[in-house]
Amino acid sequence: MAEAYQVLARKWRPQLFAELAGLEHIARTLQNAIRLDRVGHAFLFTGSRGVGKTSAARILAKALNCVKGPAVEPCNQCENCIAVTAGSAADVIEIDGASNRGVGEIRLLRENITYLPQSSPCKIYIIDEVHMLTTEAFNALLKTLEEPPAHVKFIMATTDVHKVPMTILSRCQRFDFGRLTGATIVTALTEIADREKLTLGPGVPELLAREAQGSMRDALSLLDQARSYAGEALAVNDLRSALGLIEARHCFALLEKVVTGDLCAAVGLVNDLEQAGVDLKRFSEEFLFYLRDALFLKLSGELKGLLGISVDEIGLLEPLVAGNLLPYWQQLFDLWQEQYSRIKISQTPRLALEMALIELGMVRDLLPVEELLGRIDRYLKVVPGTLSGNSPVVDKQAAPVSESRSRNPVYPTASGLIKSQEEVRRPESSQVSRPRSTTVSSYLSGAPATVNSAVVKNASLKESSRVSEMPPEPPSPEDFGEASAIDGDNGLQPGFSGPSSGVEAGEKRGAEVPPRVPPRPQKSAPLKTGGGALPATEPAREDQQAQWEAFLERLASQDARLAAMLQRSRLQPVNGGTLLLEVAPHALALLDQESVKQDILSLWAEFRGRSDTLELQFRASSAFAGYSSTGCNGASSSSGRGSSLPTKEEIFKDPAVCFISDRFGGRVTEIKPRK
């Protein structure tokens, strides 16, 4: 009679501690206990299926009952070792906890342990699936397990240690058998295939290890099944067909359509798979592993040995992977891993799979940060209207110019204003708002920019009127003509000498009050080019500051860099040949350079229309002092006119902020002081 076939899982069961693949720490502990004569009376082996719990228990039983023992390694040649291997040893009793789970079986066990072993040093009880015992059975075993006879050893194995009572766990030495790694299973399968004279194609051991999910017994069982299908030479396609796995060509076709953006074809492929009877949940899992293979292939060509696909499939996948960067494939894998967790619990897996594919197709390749920064640098050097040039930057968030203003623009010049068709009134104070940033097209086309007019409230007339910004120089008397006198009925006098009673009389009569006329300025004597002192007829401080504000307005269109550094600066009274500016403290280091000073002086002289020899000095403005994260004097600095922190409107006028806003579409959400 021919000998019965023995499956690979039983034929190649480990018989020595050294053969326990991936369990070296457990084997070493048990061997040292035997060597030092410190073997306990109760052991608990816990772990997932097929990792070697029962095999380790039998090896320990053979090592304790070996004729040459207790031995660190059983000889497997004596009668006791052979009997244990065959499962016929009288002194090694294996009990199935699932079928002998009652208190009656435990009572019988307690009666039998009093008898001495027949031919071995120890009587060993191996209780498999011990967690299946009832609560009463565990309670009946407690006393015996805690104080058994000297010749009795208990070895218990379980896949669900959480069901074992703590009273049992505390009486045993616990050993956790973790899942075996893929590399460990691949190595063991390769050795067994060589002994069995099997030819495993590239990717076959890796695919078997992946399907085994950490179980050596499962891997050998799958190898047995594939061997029956393909014979002594096993390829990846044969293994997929034998195990009913999804063919890699379906995964490649789907991935190709996703990467190329052909989502219609990708969704149509899902319908074809469903019509062919493919389990879509299983296919989603296979596609996840296929994305992992693509990611590994992009990461390094040295990882080809870890892929679960054939050489031909790798050749198809390589050109597709080369077309995108590594972060793109990482995105695909992360996104599909998240979607797979939804697909496998969905009641409608086809709908979930289709929506996941559409989301996967919208992923775009990411550029490295270094490349993005390089593009920005090249843009700053080439494109006008950025921080690197002399043109003002663009504020994408700026409010659009109204239709009326676009029809009636007001253009500032160095010598005065070109008035629009609308009548423009002159402000009473030197507070002039800065212009809004204009659109990109206005600068690229060379069209003149519109100026943001300030709104001045007339306390007497209680109405608001649109005003233009102050001219850089006071107008000459010729601008007003000879008829500069005001109707005497309203009591107004030329100049800004303060409110007059004529305004109040006009309010009482209800008559329309004409706009105030600025005073006749006295022309200043030109500065001496030799560096002499300024004349005594220099304009008042308010007029000087207004002129400086107008200069800054023009500077924004000439040199955005200098305009940003001089933002919110104030011109102090001129003393001799010195031009003193109060600026923000953080701008001192940038401005206090000879080249920067020369640029400012030359632009200032060009603006005023005369060449003076001046010395430019800077000092930190006291308005910026004393700020912390909570503002001045501990007050909040997020809002309020009492703080010198800029408002959102002022922030948007900063050239650097305008550039960032235009390029990246940002907006100011919070203002904090510099730490």
Detailed description of the structure:
The structure is a single chain. This protein is an alpha/beta fold and 675 residues long. Among the domains are: 8-178, P-loop containing nucleotide triphosphate hydrolases (Rossmann fold, 3-Layer(aba) Sandwich), CATH 3.40.50.300; 183-243, Helicase, Ruva Protein, domain 3 (Orthogonal Bundle); 248-361, Up-down Bundle (Zinc Finger, Delta Prime, domain 3); 542-661, 2-Layer Sandwich (GMP Synthetase, Chain A, domain 3), CATH 3.30.300. 43% of the residues lie in helices and 9% in strands. A 5-stranded parallel β-sheet has the order 2-3-4-1-5, covered by helices on one side. The radius of gyration is 45 Å and the shape is elongated. The termini are far apart.
Average pLDDT across residues?
74
Instruction: Write the CATH architecture name of one domain.
Output: 3-Layer(aba) Sandwich
Strand content: 5-15%
**Assigned CATH superfamily of one domain:** P-loop containing nucleotide triphosphate hydrolases
Q: Tally the helices: what do you get?
A: 27
What fold name stands as the CATH topology of one domain? Rossmann fold
Distance between the termini: 92 Å
CATH class membership of one domain: Alpha Beta
Specify the biggest β-sheet. Answer: 5 strands, parallel
Strand order of the largest sheet: 2-3-4-1-5
Structural class: alpha/beta
Using only C-alpha atoms, the radius of gyration works out to: 45 Å
Structure summary, number of beta strands: 14
Could you list the spans in which at least 5 consecutive residues all have pLDDT below 50? 386-538, 626-643
